[in-house]
Recover the amino acids of this structure.
């Protein structure tokens, strides 16, 4: 019931904006700011989150005439957000001039210990360390933008292949194959550290 | 094999936790104003898609049909004879005329 009311309300606001009332867009912005920032934060480096989230809303505004009023606005917004993040990485990889970051010996030691540790308590302690994030960023940086986005959605966030395909606008076969290959590449990259 | 699988699962769990541990980004209160400013700079929204956009959509929609038609015509042309029936009849008529004249003049 709540979702349906929200959906109708969203469609109403979209109609207002499309008919020329730009201020109506502020309502959508306030309502979905946290949702968009939540997605963008996961995929984009901290210093670029604000910029990319702004791009998302600009893109949403420009695409509003094409929004099907019977669809869920939130779902549509998520799709645009993911695609904007993907475009960010495509651009980033194309313009990248500086060499990708490298890992120190302490990362290797940390990973070896973390892999060896199976007890959940010490595992939790280790998993909270920032080394894990640095290793992940290091590995993701060595993948293509396509592999990166698929890996983040399917492998790390737990989306199904179909959901990821819908979000990216790709075929399910493409997502399935890419996800499999990207996972192999990730394992290989990390294991080469040993 | 099982060991590799277990290792990969452990690795996945470590990476998943690390991935979800990203801190929440606090955006400045001017963030929304900045978005609205950018939207105002864009100008009025086009309520209807432009002619170029519609044409572009149409072209892409018709592209597979066009390809199929080209393929069909290519197959058709390769299977039929290139000498048209008109030319065939014409050449037959010419040769019968020649035979008749030959008979008439006794050549």
């Amino acid at each position: 019931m709540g979702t349906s009311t929200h959906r109708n309300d969203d469609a109403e606001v979209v109609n207002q904006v499309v008919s020329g009332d730009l201020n109506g867009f502020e309502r959508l912005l306030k309502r979905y700011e946290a949702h968009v920032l939540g997605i963008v934060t996961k995929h984009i480096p901290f210093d670029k989150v604000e910029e990319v989230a702004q791009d998302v809303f600009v893109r949403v505004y420009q695409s509003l005439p094409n929004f099907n009023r019977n669809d869920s606005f939130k779902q549509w917004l998520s799709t645009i957000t993911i695609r904007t993040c993907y475009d960010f990485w495509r651009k980033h990889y194309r313009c990248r001039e500086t060499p990708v970051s490298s890992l120190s010996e302490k990362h290797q030691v940390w990973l070896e210990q973390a892999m060896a540790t199976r007890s959940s308590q010490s595992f939790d302690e280790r998993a909270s360390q920032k080394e894990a994030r640095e290793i992940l960023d290091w590995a993701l940086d060595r993948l293509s933008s396509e592999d990166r986005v698929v890996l983040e959605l399917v492998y790390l966030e737990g989306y199904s292949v179909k959901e990821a395909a819908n979000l990216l606008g790709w075929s399910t076969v493409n997502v399935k194959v890419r996800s499999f290959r990207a996972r192999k590449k990730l394992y290989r990259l990390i294991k080469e550290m040993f | 094999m099982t060991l590799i699988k277990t290792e990969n699962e452990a690795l996945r769990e470590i990476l998943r936790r690390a991935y979800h541990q990203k801190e929440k980004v606090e955006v400045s209160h001017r963030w929304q104003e900045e978005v609205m400013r950018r939207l105002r700079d864009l100008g009025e929204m086009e309520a209807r898609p432009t002619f170029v956009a519609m044409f572009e959509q149409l072209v892409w929609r018709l592209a597979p049909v066009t390809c199929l038609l080209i393929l069909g015509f290519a197959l058709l042309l390769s299977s039929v004879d290139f000498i048209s029936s008109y030319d065939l009849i014409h050449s037959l008529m010419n040769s019968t005329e020649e035979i008749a004249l030959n008979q008439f003049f006794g050549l």
Remarks:
- The domain at 105-191 of chain A is CATH 1.10.10.10 (Arc Repressor Mutant, subunit A).
